[in-house]
Amino acid sequence: MSITKKPQKKFTNKNHGQAKQTYNKKIQERDNRIKERNKQNISNEFDIETEKLIQMTNKNRIQKEEKIKKALSEKEKKIQRRNKKIKLFLKIFIFLILIVGTIIFAITSPIFNIKEIKVLNNSQVSSETIISLSELKPEENIFKFYSKSISNKIKENPYIENVKLHRKIPNIVEIEVEERIPTYNIDYMGKFVYINNQGYLLEISENSKGLPIIYGISTNEEEIELGKRLNNDDLESLQDIIKIINSTNENGLEGKVISIDISNKSDYIIYIEEEGKKVHLGDTSNLSNKMLYVIAIIEQEKGKEGDIFVNGDLNNKFQPYFREKV
Length: 326
Hints:
The protein is of the alpha/beta class. It is built from 5 helices and 12 strands.
């Protein structure tokens, strides 16, 4: 069997030229594609960079705008605060002008000159004395005095404990006082010094006013100063005296005790002149029972002068007794 071979194609110069052209064309197309792709890549990269740049630019612009807005906002706030301060200042200024104008009118207008001075609640000190102490004068402007200063002047009188001043517009001044009431006397250089329940020294007098006289105080004569108080030791004794007097009043002896001797705190002595009897009370313990014995002995020994002794311990078989004056 014979095999027939296909004859091989021979490349002529003409075919070779065509192949080369085709090859070059392909190369050119490939290069074009590469260039186009590179251009596209460059374009994409440029677009990306451009987008980034735009975004950054927008961000910077937004930040700048925000800063500008913030700055404007702060400026507006400052302006608003300044305006508020100005308005407040103007209000205060106008208010002060009104106040000053009112004050000037009040202290210069004759409408507010004092026409009447009244004194209220006084019984120990005369109204004339209190007005004189106040140094207030008719036709003086009602707003030109200081209440505290006037009060202190009036309280220079020992009888005056508290003072309140009331301006009754347009032209009346009321002086309301709270007075100390004398309740006891102390013996002082042959005279009497009135004191109240707080131990204030109120007045030196020749007259006892019928008040109980306290003997045996420890306050020295040089310490006796009107408006001041007894010393602490005598103030303690004064509290016992008040208890004793209250007890005598409760048992029908009101106003009958004319003196009390406090020289011995363990044996207070009261004198009942109407009955002609001295009562030795001891201290203030068991005072109610002691006073019952005193009343019983007074009734039993009616018309007799002498001493009543209730200064023992009633809870320990002590028996009160009476010793007639010989």
